Amino acid sequence: MKKSIILTTMCAMFLLGACSNKKEKLSQDELEKRVEQFQKDEKNVLEKAKENEIFTKTFLFEKDESGVSQKQTITYKENQFLKLVVENTIPTSDELKKAIEEVGVEEAKKLLKESFFQAEDVKEVSNLSGFTIDIDLTSSTEYIVTSTYDFSSLDVQKVSNLEYFKSNKLSELVKNTPQEYIQNLQRLGAKEEK
User: Fold this and answer.
1) 76 φ/ψ angles, rounded to the nearest 5 degrees
2) Among 9, 11, 40, 181, which residue's Cβ finds the most Cβ atoms within 10 Å?
3) Coil, helix or strand for 175?
4) Angle at CA 77, nearest 5°, toward 74 and 82?
């Protein structure tokens, strides 16, 4: 009985071994070709990944003579702008400080926002696709105006004639590559935030 079990097991193993796929033996030449093709494919994948790499860099301008500082965050891929966020930190005027003293920061924040969005140039751009603008009273001494340009949906050609964008020189901005734009910022004194 034990002999028949052992014999049956051995036959089964032999049959399984005979039915299994044989491994393909490659010549040295074929092996080198496959390695070369693998390296080429890997290089192509890495190049494509690099082409699709998205960069985000932030630059800071120190306060100017009127006390305004600026922060710009640029998101880009290769030579294409994707997004630009500009934050201008502005000191509160004496008039605004008096309003804050009279009604408090929260009410002054609400009044400042209402007043800001009543300005004609802001009204003109506040509902554009691909552009947002906001104002926030962050303390009794300063407020921040944030402009966000989403170049995936902002029609630069269409909006560049609007007064707000003329003063911001939007059409000139997009004539540069992101790298050229960054170099210009640095020439003007901006420091990259690390």
Assistant:
1) -150, 165
2) 181
3) coil
4) 50
The secondary structure element, H or E, covering residue 156 is helix 156-159
pLDDT tens, residue by residue, 167-191: 778 878 888 999 999 999 999 999 9
Q: How many residues would you count in the chain? A: 194
Task: Kindly list the distances between the CA atom of residue 100 and the CA atoms of 90, 91, 104, in Å, as whole numbers in the listed order.
Answer: 15, 13, 5
Would you call 154 exposed, middle or buried from its count of C-beta atoms within 10 A (0-12, 13-18, 19+)?
Answer: buried
Cβ of 190: how many Cβ atoms within 10 Å? 18
The phi and psi torsions of 140 (rounded to 5 degrees) equal -75, -10
Cα 107 from chain centre: 34
Q: Do the strands 69-77 and 131-137 form a parallel or antiparallel pair, or are they unpaired? A: unpaired
Cβ atoms of residues 83 and 130 within 8 Å: no
> What phi and psi, each to the nearest 5 degrees, are found at residue 117?
-80, -5
Tokens of 172: 């000139």
Q: Tokens 């051995």 — which residue?
A: 10
> Are the C-beta atoms of residues 99 and 115 closer than 8 Å to each other?
no
CA separation for the pair 154, 152 (Å, rounded): 6
pLDDT at 19 over 70: no
pLDDT in tens, 52-85: 899 999 999 999 999 999 999 999 999 999 999 9
